[in-house]
Amino acid sequence: MSQSFTEYLEIISKSENLDEEQASHAMRLILEGKVSSEEVAAFLMGMRSKGETTQELTGFVKEMRKAAIQVEVDTKGAVDLCGTGGDKSGTFNISTAAMFVVAGAGVPVLKHGNRSVSSKSGSFDVLEELGAVANLDKKQSEALFNETGMVFMFAPNFHPALKYVMPARRALKIRTFFNMLGPLLNPAGVKNQLIGVFSKEAAGTMIQILGNLETESAFTVSAHDGLDEVSLSSQSAIFELQSHLSRGAITFDPKSLGYEWVDPEELLGGDTKTNAAIIRSIFDGSSTEAQRNVVEMNAAFAIRASGAADSLEDAKIMAAKSLDSSEAKRKLDLFVEESRKVSGN
Questions:
Q1: Burial class (CB in 10 A: 0-12, 13-18, 19+), 288
Q2: Rounded to two decimals, what is the model's pTM?
Q3: From the CB of residue 184, how many other CB atoms can be counted at a distance below 10 Å?
Q4: How far apart are alpha carbons 276 and 270 in whole angstroms?
Q5: Nearest Cα to 50, choosing from 78, 87, 21, 10?
Q6: Superfamily of structural domain 5-67
Q7: Which listed site, 139, 162, 196, 305, has its alpha carbon 20 to 30 Å from 314?
Q8: Considering only the top CATH level, what class is 80-154+187-341?
């Protein structure tokens, strides 16, 4: 028999853990609006203070995926690349730029993202500044992906039940497990992912959760300099999932792929206009070498995660060709044009 939400609060208040079934049920009660904002806040704080287990987080993700509006498209060979945010690094939108490099290499992209929360410019914001319509519904998203092999799915449009969580999250103003779960909630159920994470510990947890789900291939990455991307200004911790099996972190040095290290300042962005201009400059060949290389390198990891390349070296060659041939630029222009068309703008 299912327990009450009060009983779940009692369990975690003693620093005891929920099993996966209890975690799923607790999340179901929240998403069905059967729990008050005060109880949600207590649950989030209780989880944070005791520390969430992989089992609990897996239960939460499974329930949140069930509650999502599904984008029904062919996900074979497609990849999602996104970050958790919260690294406060001030870089430009690296994974958003990499999306078009990956698409230009012939890999379908099912990107899931949001407005800016902790940075000056989230993926939603910079796509709008580039001229695209980023606020698409289910049918529009399916039409755009089927037409172009690319889509950006704006998280609030596909997770309406999260409205019951927002008052508590706004009131708390601190990072909770929801910050980590966002990248795991792709509404199309994509099976290949590159996820940038704010800490090595969180990246290790995330790869285990992905292994508990139906993910086929993934990298979770956290740079030693704090970036939630693969960095050019430090080494990065990389966790890999292949054939549903995860392994411990490897330390990746950009020099191993032929890239030179750069100062962190060379990767900085600014407001939405600044970041959109940087992305345009990367695609028209007028950016700095550091800006181009960090996008090319992250695109290579996403291409490798998709299964389209047998090695990172091969994936790097594909990413470089996408940029050098202007295919990445053509994909961005196509995305802008077709997103307007399917939205009726």
A1: middle
A2: 0.94
A3: 25
A4: 10
A5: 10
A6: Transferase, Pyrimidine Nucleoside Phosphorylase; Chain C (1.20.970.10)
A7: 196
A8: alpha beta
